[in-house]
Every structure is written in C-alpha cells, then in structure tokens.
Amino acid sequence: MGLPHFQVAGDIYFITNVVYNRLPILTRPSFIVPLIDSWNFYRYKQSYKLLGYVIMPDHFHVLIWPYGDAPVADMMRDFKRFTSGRIARQAEVEGKKEWLEAFRAAGEKTERAEYKVWQDDYWDKNIFSEKMLRQKLNYIHNNPVRAGLVNSPDEYPYSSYRSYELGDEAWIEIDKDWG
Fold first, then answer.
1. How much is the pTM?
2. Looking at residue 16, what DSSP letter applies?
C-alpha cells in the first residue's frame, strides 16, 4: 500500500521523489535533463504551474500548482515512467554498468519494469497558504547548502533559486505569478 495522497482543487503540491536505494545519479546534466524535459512537457500537457524545484544527487523536490483536471498521481506516474526510461538509456550510453545493474535488479524485484529508477511512491504535501509556500521554497533552495554541496544557494545550478534571485531560467522557466 502506498502513501496517501490528497488532491484538493486549488492547492499547490510540494513533492519529493527519491531514486531507488538512494543511488546518487542526479549529478550531471545528462541525467538531469530528462527531469527538466518532463516537467516542461507535463506543465503544458497536464496544466500545472512549476513554482520551484531542486534536484539533489539522489532525490528531488518540486512545487507544482495544478489548474487542470489531471490528477497529480497520474502526472507522477507518467513522469517516473518517462524519466526512468531516459535515465536508463543514458546510463547505458555512458557505460554506467553499476547503475544499470541496480536499475535492472530493482525492476526484477518489483516485477513492474525492466529498469526501475525511482522508489515506488512519492511524498507530497498540500500547500494552502503563501506563508507555507515561501517556507517550502526556502527549504528547497537551501537544500544543497544543508547537504554540504555548496556554500550558497546561488552556487547550485539545479534549483529554481537562480530563477527567483538572478532571473536565470537557463534550465526551465519558473512560474512566479503565485504571489
């Protein structure tokens, strides 16, 4: 049985998704681009706004605000399926045999996919106030600092911090029209 998820019209969602067995694969652009591509695709296909994100080596946090009919659970299912395939293919191209074996073993264990990149479920929290949203954005943007990856949030490239503070949307456009 998975974690409970509560879809409430108008709520923003703080979502955390973790790489299976916390394998630190999200450290290079070639493995991060599939996540960015997927968020960009689903923001239009399933009508949601992307308010913030951080991609850490073994997990990510994202803030999304659905305004269409597509359930968050459907978006996450499709996101995980798409990114798993792209990440596995990239690992194959780059000769990451240990990663491929870990993905294959996880897929065999769950018997649902040839390669399994993500843990079965995801964690989400409904955000229902601007104060709570600001707290989650602060948490997201300071995650790389707390993890000891950088000294300051502006040094970390895989985060929406640079969009908010520096206007840098090289990776993906952030919807800042929530305030």
1. 0.92
2. E
Tokens of 171: 């990776």
How confident is the prediction along the chain (179 residues), in pLDDT tens digits per residue? 455 566 666 789 999 999 999 999 999 999 999 999 999 998 888 889 999 999 999 999 999 999 877 789 989 999 999 999 999 999 999 999 999 999 999 988 877 778 899 998 899 999 989 999 999 999 999 999 999 999 999 999 999 999 999 999 999 999 998 76
| Burial group, residue 58, by CB count within 10 angstroms (0-12, 13-18, 19+) | middle
Q: Which two tokens stand for residue 20?
A: 């299976």
Whole-number Å distance between alpha carbons of 20 and 23:
6
Burial 140-178 (b: 16+ CB within 10 A, else e): bbbbbeeeeeeeebeebebbbbbbbeeeeeebeebbeeb
Distance CA 12, CA 126 (A): 6
Could you identify the residue written with the tokens 């067995």?
21
Q: Which fold has domain 12-166?
A: Alpha-Beta Plaits (3.30.70)
Token pair listed for 108: 């065999």
